[in-house]
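Methods — Computational structure assignment.
A single polypeptide chain was analysed. Its primary sequence is given first, followed by the predicted tertiary structure written as structure tokens.
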Amino acid sequence: DAGSHPIEVLIQDTGQGIAPENLNKLFIPFFTTKKIGQGTGLGLAIAYGIVKMHRGTIDVRSKVGEGTTFCIKLPASSSARAEETVG
């Protein structure tokens, strides 16, 4: 059954990482650590909503000074149509 094996997407960087005290706030709309005018704090909240709408999960692991990994898991469907958009 295709639904028993989720599709997993990992997004990883080697940036500065996320402070532990901010990890539980990442998906809250308008939360940002950027200066005023440099970000709205909506990107991750929107991503979270889209993933949840598709019955998936999104988790984050981060270590300050080493980077961050987001893991998105979505249920697979044998009736799903595969599409790829590049660019």
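Note: Residues 1-16+61-77 form one domain.
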